[in-house]
Amino acid sequence: MLHYIVRRLFIAIPVLLGITILNFCIVNLAPGNPVDMFIDPNTPQQLVEAKKEMLGLNDPLIIQYFKWLWQLLQGGFGYSFSSFAPVTHIIGERIGPTLMLTSISLTLGLLIAIPIGILSAVKQNTRFDYIITGLSFIWTSIPQFFLGLGLIYLFALHFKILPTGGMLTIGGDANFADRIKHLILPVSVLTIAIIGKKIRYVRASMLDVLKQDYLRTARAKGLHAFIVTNKHALRNALIPIITVFGMEIPLLLGGSIIIEQIFQWPGIGQLTMQSILSRDYPTLMGLNFIAAIIVLATNLFMDILYFVADPRVKYN
Amino acid sequence: MIEAKESPSLSPLIQIEGLKTYYPIKKGIFSRTVGHVKAVDDISLNIYEGETLGLIGESGCGKSTIGRSIVRLENPSNGKIFFQNEDITQYSNKQLKPIRKNIQIIFQDPYSSLNPRKKINDILSEPLIVHKLVEPHEVQQNVDQLLDAVGLPRSYKNRYPHEFSGGQRQRIGIARAISLKPKFIVCDEPVSALDVSIQAQILNLLKDLQQELNLTYLFIAHGVGAVKYISTRVAVMYLGKIVELADKTDLFNHPKHPYTQILLNSSPLPDPKLRNKERVIIQGEVPSSANPPMGCRFHTRCPYVQDKCKNEEPLLTGFLHTVACHYPLG
Amino acid sequence: MSMTDIRVNPTTRIMDATQMIESELEERYTQQIIRRFRKNRLAVAGLVVIILLIFTGLFAPWLTPHNPNEVTAVFSASPSTTHLLGTDQVGRDVLSRLIYATRISLIVGFITVSIYVTIGTILGLISAYYGGWMDMIVMRLADIFMSFPYLMVILVVVSILGSSLTTIILVLALFSWPTVARLVRGSVLSLKELDYVKAGVALGLSPARIMFSHILPNALGPIIVNATFGVAAAILSEAGLSFLGMGIQPPTPSWGNMLSDAQSLTVLTNQLWLWVPAGSILLVTVLAINFMGDGLRDALDPKQ
Predict the structure, then answer these.
(1) Is the pLDDT of residue A37 over 50?
(2) For residue B132, how far is the Cα from the chain centroid?
(3) In a designed cystine with B255, which of A149, A204, B260, C153 is the match (CB 3.0 to 4.6 A)?
(4) Least CB-CB distance to B151: which of C8, C26, C28?
(5) Does A314 touch chain B (CB under 8 A)?
(6) Closest Cα to residue B302, out of B238, B223, B221?
């Protein structure tokens, strides 16, 4: 097994390098340059040039790339073009709220989708099953921003029981209840998206497990007895399910952009939008890179987990 | 390796010299090659025009690999393959294309040897079209003739493989193999997957076609009955090596290698009077072909094993009836 | 001995009667699939909805009561008899814009998917068939592209390159091909070991012919399912981009950019006609596609 891990890590290195290159290419395709964004059009050209020189924008692209890479290896992403604060610092500030949203949604999603999915499989073709299946279809199909807007409309504006956005009430005390109130809507949107997909997956996996002959007799004895006597089978089915949840993380990172926009959530999603609008390259590259690393790490971890669970799965 | 002369006067259609097909075993972080599965280990063989060379042995002894190596579906690691005195061992796919018309193969599993998405007509006409053997307007005629040759109604050409039984599919496989008018066909266990009653029909079909179309066969099987019925000469393989080679009657009536004797004895005989009172029971399991035993490869299971067998590998010796054994029977 | 007794008559070659299995269902493969699909009512409903939408998109000019870009009346007017869904903040008819936006979504959906499915399939085929370096490189490339969170990286690229319809389509396709390539590669790796593929090699067929004529048709099932769900994903992505202001720009109507207006609390509370219809039709479209995709998946893989 150690072989497998080392091999996977080894393969990940060129991928990592490729990520940095692609990242760099993307961000530098831009026609405009950031200096133009926050100067008075009347500023004399020399000053503009000086500024550009200072920010290293006049060097050939390859040089810029290696400068960035070198910086990266020393643990930094450079300085933001708009706020001049270190990018790592900026991202560090904003990543907390996003992680909070993501982890809560993922956990809730797991806790809800797995039991309901199992139940739905066990009660296959009953009314309960049809309702759940129907709901999960709708939940996967609804665009996240529409759901978000709808929930805000219903609960914040119509029923007025929840806030419309932000992490905390401005001017209020930052107590736990307040935080929870602000969390409910955004987390709901993310969680609903997750469970929509995952209930069906859990259900399908469970059905596969249930179909096996030796379990049919156990079922005849009743659900409780079934679970008690077949913990082993359930556990086998559970591990792949958990790994599949891990696969949601990259999607959550992307989805956070929209959610944070709607709910004015001060996380890295919102930061991404701001950086895009202000053409803050270093921040954008840092964000892109971190996101890619998270995805890479998650995939690696999930692959290993899957391999541990089912050693028959060989790399490639 | 002493190449004993088998049949005099005719030049062989297919010649195999020192064929070795090894599969690397990879282990470790960097997939280092730690050993080889020696599927075919230094085999030399001549196959003469018009004959049927039967090849028998246990599963995993490498007989299928030889067949596939000749048709170049497997790539030899060492040695040479000659077709009509032409060395085709290192030919690229492009160079092989004209040769492929002459060397064909019939597969064992009728359920995976036909493309489920293609009509029989397409399966049979494709080789004709690709090799430009007939004019476009003659294709249908040819397909009809092929179906006639294997005993299937012409109307079947518009159907799909899943609509046919195993035996019918094998017939289609045979039709495909003869479509290019080959000289030589590797029959890779063509009847092993069929019911016994159907086996006879297919074997007879193969025999009839051999006569009509002047074919040469390499007939690979692990069951003795089919080989006995259709072959002219028979070779016995064990763990990548040929241990005995003789005319059919000679081999079956006077086997010289202990393994051959055991193999022949283990096939069920319906007539109780013909059964040996004394059966020689084979011992042990097939050793791994990655690590064959020292000396004679069969010595670990041979009931007549002696000291010499454990140390020295016997070579194929003899005239017309060759055997690789230090203490051959009879 | 038993086997020599049954002989086949060499001149007439008539087979044993028990062998002639007349197949009662002389169905072609595709017919079987269609039959299974039709049994799934939701899937059929989905198909009907999509066809209606395509119809709407095609005949938009004849179906719309007003010109979608023309300022016809009071801005932000609530629904009335002349403007069934009211007017937007500039004074354009919402219903007409909604109908024209169908075109955008469908175009993005189908064209994006066509592009990336083609690229992904070809790369996956070649990669799996030839193996070796080719395989290594393509798979590493796929890994690299797949490492970026989909929406995030698309947003960044589109914001840089500009938000024309073409750019959006190309960028979406650029980051979607890896999934298809992996899928196809997986199928081909197992298919290429089958005897009928080997037979093709033995018959001297060219690799291209073997790949496209023999292997690909047998790998189509999952590709089609993936493509169907891909259309929904592409439509949602475009809507998301437009919602954030980085996608289709007004005055061209897109369901996404119509929803963008609702980020203002006044619109959200008081002018429901400006955003609820757009969101609803988006939901219905994606739902229909998902039903279809699900139905296709079950029809193609009958492991019931």
Answers:
(1) no
(2) 29
(3) B260
(4) C8
(5) no
(6) B238
